[in-house]
């Protein structure tokens, strides 16, 4: 019985994740024992403190390249970069989650199960809002960090669930429009669980094929296995379904608009920025490490998915009448551009990472501004209500216009530099068809953005134009960060491009 | 008896679960179908552990059971909250969000 | 049907055949069947239980739902505790500490539930 060896654990490599997980656990204790009045302050400082400490640990680890805990975790350049990106985007989106001035008690409630306007709900109206959202957010972020550095598919599955489950809950905790919010949570949960079942069955088939689930083991197993190639193909296909669902690629995107629209806007922002980074981190790692040697087999299929995603996302974005749905379809189209980076393999890892940062900041800024346009019912997200906002609120409209131009890929914004970097590296990797489709679809995608700009400035205001609320410093900081990064990465992208170039390829041994 | 039969059984269970998710209307039944899919994957893992002569697959099945339990808790909480506020668990009635 | 794109051609043919099968079967059905619509026929039907409207399963006491949660918590614990208990004396104090951390994390959830008053019988 004594032949079991404990795997060596490099705690330094795991430190960033341990800090964030630990902070989340302490957050639960705070929730259980701290007096109600203090919880909000304690939770916000604990959450931000935990994330900043995690970021510091990542920066200290920046040159680390190691596989630890028996191959379960692979810390390497791109993995650390993605972890850092997720933490930074998480800190920024926390500004939206902690915003309390726009709505009394914040955008979340503690007990979403109360029917609207019931006695329990009215009592809840008077209380300060839920602070459970902070530990939940921390758990989600920690799960995403683990997802990006998973060295085997089982760890990846566990991490996938660790970051998905809190997100399902966060979707259903909106203070306003609770039925829609719960519906979004239900849809996201059922479809997400469905997709993760596919992921798991894919893992099981790959285990049968290669005899192991470690990514490097599968890479070697591909060359040596005596099992039928059908196991490999079916396993890879099912695995990809699970991953592409989280990345919101067509035809696995149908949850995206509903969930983005129904979830509380701060959570939508978190999903659009951080979940996207995590999902593509996982996709890049799986395809670059485990399946690079079989690229010839899956590249045409994934390229088809990428083309479908770009085309369907950008065309459906044109038809949207709700700003959150518009941004959701734009995130689908952007998933298509990022898939071009995945198909291009090692040549485009760096530019994909750059794209994730650039897109994440822009989309956080955009959703932050969506939270400001309000009437007595809460956020006014229907586009017709936005007509003529430029007259009453020129600063708001100018900033939103800048972000829309950034999404459209106008030069001097990060939208241009990130697309340029991504497409040129894909071109160098001989993916010219994808690049051409990408450029054409981004022309189509520019149309809905410009439609919003025209609506803001040129259309006459409607009868009851909503007002642009004045937020606290937190949301202001988020908007500033979003706009500033969109601008800085547009004019001086080289420092970040240097960092992603330094990150190097995924560790594949 | 060859282990292949277990793989086929698992594939059949997985397919039944997947079809069930697509055609059933009660959120709880949909959710049970997802659990069926996870268990089909578990059966596959254990069978391959037997074929490969290693214990890894059985350990993985433990992890999957734990994750599935966590998923049950979250799923029931969400379905409970939507049932309380709407008095219905039909996925067809959850129709406020559409284009 | 060979060469690199040949395998995709096979897949394409299969998809076309599958689509054609679907169309032909349903067209034949439509042509051959009698057509007598009634209101009862257009209600939804699921085998085993009435169409989901909520009323048919609301009779379960809501408080048992807490039991389901607690069961999940302890089931999760035992799944790892049993295999560990068989081998832990060969692994030394490190593994005891690690299992302690695991149980502590689960206990955290129980503690939270207790403080929130979930465990009182209402």
Could you characterize what this model shows?
The complex is a heterotrimer of chains A (509), B (99) and C (122). Chain A is mostly helical and 509 residues long. Chain A is built from 20 helices and five strands. Chain A has one domain. In chain A, the strands form two sheets. Chain A has a three-stranded antiparallel β-sheet, with no helix packed on it. Chain A has a two-stranded antiparallel sheet with strand order 1-2. Chain A is globular, with a radius of gyration of 22 Å. The two termini of chain A are 30 Å apart. Chain B is an all-alpha fold and 99 residues long. The radius of gyration of chain B is 17 Å and the shape is elongated. With 122 residues, chain C is an all-alpha fold. Among the domains of chain C are: 30 residues; 52 residues. The interface between A and B is large, with 46 and 48 residues.
Write the layout of secondary structure elements.
The complex is a heterotrimer of chains A (509), B (99) and C (122).
Chain A: H1 11-33, H2 36-60, E1 66-68, E2 73-75, H3 77-97, H4 119-126, H5 133-148, H6 153-171, H7 178-210, H8 215-224, H9 229-247, H10 255-262, H11 265-290, H12 295-318, H13 323-343, H14 349-370, E3 373-375, E4 378-379, H15 389-392, H16 394-408, H17 414-428, H18 432-457, E5 467-468, H19 473-491, H20 494-503
Antiparallel strand pairs in A: 1-2, 3-4, 3-5
Helix pairs in contact in A: 1-2, 1-5, 2-3, 3-5, 3-11, 3-14, 3-19, 5-6, 5-11, 6-7, 6-11, 7-8, 7-9, 7-10, 9-11, 10-11, 10-13, 11-13, 11-14, 12-13, 12-18, 13-14, 13-17, 13-18, 14-16, 14-17, 14-19, 14-20, 16-18, 16-19, 17-18, 17-19
Chain B: H1 4-23, H2 27-52, H3 56-86
Helix pairs in contact in B: 1-2, 2-3
Chain C: H1 6-32, H2 64-87, H3 93-115
Helix pairs in contact in C: 2-3
Keywords (chain A): Cell membrane, Membrane, NAD, Quinone, Translocase, Transmembrane, Transmembrane helix, Transport
Domain NADH:quinone oxidoreductase/Mrp antiporter transmembrane (chain A): 150-443
Organism (chain A): Phytomonospora endophytica
How would you describe this structure in keywords?
heterotrimer, B: 99 residues, mainly alpha, Helix Hairpins, 3 helices, 78% helix, 0% strand, elongated, C: 122 residues
**What's the average pLDDT of chain A?**
90
CATH class of chain B: Mainly Alpha
Query: How is the biggest beta sheet of chain B arranged?
Result: none
From the spread of the alpha carbons, the general shape of chain A counts as globular
Low-confidence stretches of chain A: none
Task: Please tally the β strands of chain A and state the result.
Answer: 5
In round numbers, the mean pLDDT of chain B is: 86
Count all strands of chain B and give the number.
Answer: 0
Strand content of chain B: under 5%
In terms of structural class, how would the helical and strand content of chain A be classed?
mainly alpha
Q: Strand order within the widest sheet of chain A?
A: 4-3-5
Task: Tell me roughly what share of residues is in helical segments of chain A.
Answer: over 70%
What distance lies between the first and last C-alpha atoms of chain B, to the nearest angstrom? Answer: 53 Å
Low-confidence stretches of chain B: none
Largest interface: A-B, 46 and 48 residues
Number of domains of chain A: 1
Q: Give the SSE order of chain B as H and E letters.
A: HHH
CATH topology label of chain B: Helix Hairpins
The coarse silhouette of chain B is elongated
Instruction: Tell me the radius of gyration of chain A.
Output: 22 Å
- The tally of structural domains of chain B comes to 1
InterPro entries (chain C): NADH_UbQ/plastoQ_OxRdtase_su3 (IPR000440), NDAH_ubi_oxred_su3_sf (IPR038430)
Function (chain C): NDH-1 shuttles electrons from NADH, via FMN and iron-sulfur (Fe-S) centers, to quinones in the respiratory chain.
Membrane topology (chain C): Multi-pass membrane protein
GO molecular function (chain C): NADH dehydrogenase (ubiquinone) activity; quinone binding
């Amino acid at each position: 019985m004594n032949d079991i060896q404990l795997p060596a654990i490099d705690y330094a490599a795991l430190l960033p994740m341990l800090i964030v997980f630990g902070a989340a656990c302490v957050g639960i204790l705070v929730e259980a024992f701290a007096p109600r009045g203090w919880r909000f302050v304690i939770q916000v400082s604990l959450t931000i403190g935990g994330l900043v400490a995690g970021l510091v640990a990542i920066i200290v680890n920046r040159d680390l390249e190691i596989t630890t805990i028996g191959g379960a975790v692979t810390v390497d350049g791109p993995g650390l970069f993605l972890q850092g990106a997720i933490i930074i985007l998480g800190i920024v989106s926390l500004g939206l989650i902690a915003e309390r001035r726009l709505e009394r008690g914040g955008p979340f409630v503690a007990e979403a199960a109360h029917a609207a306007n019931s006695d329990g709900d009215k009592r809840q109206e008077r209380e300060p809002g839920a602070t459970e959202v902070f530990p939940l957010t921390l758990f989600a972020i920690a799960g995403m960090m683990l997802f990006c550095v998973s060295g085997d598919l089982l760890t990846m599955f566990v991490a996938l669930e660790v970051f998905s489950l809190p997100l399902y809950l966060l979707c259903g905790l909106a203070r306003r429009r609770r039925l829609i919010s719960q519906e979004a949570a239900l849809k996201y949960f059922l479809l997400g669980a469905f997709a993760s079942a596919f992921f798991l069955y894919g893992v099981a088939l790959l285990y049968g094929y290669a005899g192991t689930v470690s990514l490097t083991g599968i890479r070697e197993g591909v060359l040596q296995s005596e099992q039928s190639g059908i196991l490999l193909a079916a396993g890879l296909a099912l695995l990809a379904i699970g991953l592409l669902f989280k990345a919101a690629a067509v035809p696995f995107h149908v949850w995206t608009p509903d969930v983005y629209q129904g979830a509380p806007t701060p959570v939508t922002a978190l999903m659009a920025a951080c979940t996207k980074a995590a999902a593509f981190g996982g996709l890049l790692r799986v395809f670059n490490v485990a399946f690079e040697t079989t690229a010839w087999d899956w590249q045409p299929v994934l390229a088809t998915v990428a083309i479908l995603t770009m085309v369907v996302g950008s065309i459906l974005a044109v038809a949207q009448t709700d700003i959150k749905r518009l941004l959701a379809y734009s995130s689908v189209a952007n998933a298509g551009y990022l898939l071009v980076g995945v198909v291009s393999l090692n040549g485009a890892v760096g530019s994909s990472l750059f794209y994730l940062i650039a897109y994440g900041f822009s989309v956080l800024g955009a959703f932050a501004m969506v939270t400001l346009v309000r009437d007595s019912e809460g956020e006014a997200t229907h586009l017709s209500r936005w007509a003529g906002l430029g007259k009453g609120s020129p600063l708001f409209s100018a900033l939103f216009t800048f972000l829309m131009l950034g999404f459209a890929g106008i030069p001097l914004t990060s939208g241009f530099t990130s697309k340029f970097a991504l497409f040129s590296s894909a071109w160098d990797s001989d993916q010219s068809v994808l690049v051409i489709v990408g450029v054409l679809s981004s022309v189509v995608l520019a149309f809905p953005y410009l439609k919003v700009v025209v609506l803001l400035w040129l259309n006459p205001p409607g009868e009851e134009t909503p007002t642009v609320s004045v937020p606290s410093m937190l949301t202001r900081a988020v908007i500033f960060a979003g706009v500033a990064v969109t601008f800085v990465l547009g004019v001086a992208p080289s420092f970040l491009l240097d960092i992603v170039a330094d990150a190097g390829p995924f560790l594949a041994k | 008896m060859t282990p292949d039969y277990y793989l086929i059984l698992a594939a059949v269970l997985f397919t039944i679960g997947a079809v069930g998710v697509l055609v059933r209307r009660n959120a709880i039944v949909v959710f049970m179908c997802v659990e069926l899919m996870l268990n089909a994957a578990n059966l596959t893992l254990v069978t391959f552990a037997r074929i490969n002569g290693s214990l890894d697959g059985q350990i993985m099945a433990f992890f999957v059971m734990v994750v599935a339990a966590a998923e049950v808790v979250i799923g029931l909480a969400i379905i409970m909250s939507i049932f309380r506020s709407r008095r219905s668990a039909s996925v067809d009635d959850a129709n406020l969000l559409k284009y | 049907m060979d060469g690199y794109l040949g395998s995709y051609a096979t897949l394409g043919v299969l998809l076309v055949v599958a689509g054609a099968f679907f169309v032909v079967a349903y067209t034949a059905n439509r042509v051959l069947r009698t057509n007598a619509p009634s209101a009862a026929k257009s209600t939804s039907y699921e085998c085993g239980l009435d169409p989901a409207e909520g009323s048919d399963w609301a009779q379960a006491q809501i408080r048992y739902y807490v039991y389901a949660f607690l069961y999940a918590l302890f089931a999760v614990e035992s799944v790892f505790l049993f295999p560990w208990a068989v081998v832990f004396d060969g692994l030394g104090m490190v593994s005891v500490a690690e299992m302690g951390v695991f149980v502590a994390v689960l206990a955290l959830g129980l503690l939270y539930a207790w403080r929130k008053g979930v465990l009182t019988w209402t």
